[in-house]
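hiii so um. not sure if this is the right channel but i have a protein structure encoded as tokens and i wanna go backwards to a sequence. like what aa goes where. can anyone help
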């Protein structure tokens, strides 16, 4: 009997010690809401859009706080100082992984796409190909002179012709759904860069999208809303087993359509490469990499490194860059035009700068961009207020680490609220106002922004995105006058699903050729 009491006492002491140990560990986590639901954690308490909910929680719990998404720890960072800490030194490596969600697995070939792959050999290979063959400063400069300029002229030509055919005489204002036009252009640029192929678009037709762009847009409109960081489908196995809401079915259908789309590009490039090699063997072809698209270069590498550059690898990288690159760039340009329509004095000031620097005898080109500082201020202010990925992409701690002095267990998700940081009143005066002048004359120098992320997982497409946005917005403002439809301001409501901050209602505007550009528009 005594041995029983002794064993019970020892067990009690061990349990109490374990309890205190666990409580001690729990106390070292960042602060956060005490109320959490069984199984679901804090998920039922989170209202969308998440970036505004997280900003509210940060005002209560501080620049770093802790939540539970199901059984997963989540640490949310909401200050510039802590964000800099996260993406510096050893901590940048410690949180360089990506969290794995079932919905993401469905659309990324088991997490092997560039944006969602864990930090390691496969990710480094994909990033190297993307940065060298598509997104390097040299490639972006070449593309600005050829691909972007050509696609931009085609869009301007279609808008001018649609205006000329408008009722009531030539040159009238036409109603334009800008997101579709901007998506078409961004998609066309990436298609040509990757596969040196142009969308099948009848230039004489009054259409705003090609067949290929419509197909990709339809696919992405299924995928993006269903892939997030706080969707119940990812945390409750029962919802996945029963496929409640049809998420798995919808994603599988979208991925199948995307595979058909991308493999068609790959097969076409393979045929062109074989023809090029045949001609080269006869001494009649230039097979330098600068003359090839990204897919063709990877197919060439496939011959020497077949285990790395598989068709699945190429498919994943192309699908990732084509989808993410098209959607984020076109969305940011849509927000920019929305802000300009709601602030016509800013729009006019940007046009006056373009008129004084470029004139009306030619279109804005890449060499003009360094001399259009106010246009650059407009783009920066848009990125501050409406970053395409307001929470960036989620990170995951691969090992136990510390953020701002708090313990972050391995496997924790780390979210950085760029939206809140960009609107921090401690950094930005009147942060909710659209005021491009805040970036003039180096006034914003030293102020922290990260619209493309930071550290090892920073978006590699920043150069291409900034160049594309500068050229597109510059030419649209140079060639056309833009005005709102109706008397009220354009609705600025944001979407509530996915990781990209879409505009809830696609932007429509009135577009009319500017009188001083009529002669040039007739020649384009």
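sure thing!! here u go:
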């Amino acid at each position: 009997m005594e041995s029983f009491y002794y064993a019970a006492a020892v067990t009690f002491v061990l349990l109490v010690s374990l309890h205190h140990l666990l409580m001690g560990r729990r106390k070292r986590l960042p602060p956060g809401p005490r109320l959490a639901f069984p199984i679901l954690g804090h998920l039922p308490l989170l209202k969308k859009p998440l970036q505004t909910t997280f900003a509210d929680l940060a005002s209560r719990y501080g620049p770093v706080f802790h939540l539970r998404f199901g059984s997963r720890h989540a640490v949310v960072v909401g200050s510039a100082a802590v964000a800099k800490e996260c993406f510096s030194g050893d901590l940048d490596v410690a949180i360089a992984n990506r969290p794995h969600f079932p919905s993401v697995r469905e659309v990324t070939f088991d997490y092997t796409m560039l944006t969602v792959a864990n930090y390691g050999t496969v990710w480094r290979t994909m990033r190297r190909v993307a940065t060298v063959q598509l997104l390097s400063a040299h490639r972006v400069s070449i593309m600005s002179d050829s691909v972007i300029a050509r696609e931009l002229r085609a869009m301007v030509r279609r808008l001018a012709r649609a205006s000329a055919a408008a009722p009531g005489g030539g040159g009238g204002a036409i109603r334009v759904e800008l997101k579709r036009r901007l998506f078409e252009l961004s998609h066309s640029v990436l298609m040509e860069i990757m596969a040196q192929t142009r969308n099948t678009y009848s230039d004489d037709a009054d259409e705003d999208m090609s067949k290929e762009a419509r197909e990709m847009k339809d696919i992405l409109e299924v995928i993006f809303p269903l892939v997030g960081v706080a969707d119940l489908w990812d945390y409750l196995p029962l919802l996945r087993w029963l496929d409640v809401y049809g998420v798995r079915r919808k994603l599988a259908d979208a991925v199948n359509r995307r595979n058909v789309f991308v493999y068609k590009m790959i097969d076409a490039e393979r045929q062109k490469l074989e023809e090029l090699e045949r001609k080269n063997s006869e001494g009649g072809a230039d097979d330098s990499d600068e003359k090839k698209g990204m897919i063709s270069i990877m197919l060439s590498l496939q011959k020497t490194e077949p285990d790395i550059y598989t068709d699945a690898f190429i498919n994943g990288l192309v699908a990732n860059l084509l989808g993410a690159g098209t959607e984020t760039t076109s969305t940011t340009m849509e927000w920019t035009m929305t802000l300009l329509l709601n602030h016509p004095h800013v729009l006019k000031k940007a046009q006056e700068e373009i008129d004084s620097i470029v004139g009306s005898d030619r279109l804005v080109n890449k060499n003009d961009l360094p001399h259009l500082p106010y246009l650059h201020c407009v783009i920066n202010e848009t990125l501050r207020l409406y970053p395409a990925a307001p929470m960036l992409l989620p990170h995951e701690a691969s090992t136990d680490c510390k953020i701002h002095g708090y313990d972050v267990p391995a496997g924790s998700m780390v979210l950085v609220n760029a939206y809140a940081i960009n609107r921090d009143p401690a950094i930005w005066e009147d942060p909710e106002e659209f005021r491009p002048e805040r970036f003039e004359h180096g006034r914003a120098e030293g102020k922290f922004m990260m619209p493309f992320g930071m550290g090892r997982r920073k978006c590699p497409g920043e150069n291409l995105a900034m160049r594309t946005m500068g050229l597109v917005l510059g030419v649209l403002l140079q060639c056309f006058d833009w005005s709102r439809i109706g008397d009220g301001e354009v609705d600025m409501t944001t979407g509530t699903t996915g990781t990209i901050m879409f505009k809830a209602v696609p932007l429509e505007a009135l577009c009319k050729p500017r009188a001083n550009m009529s002669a040039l528009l007739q020649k384009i």
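oh and Residues 27 and 407 are 9 Å apart (CA to CA).
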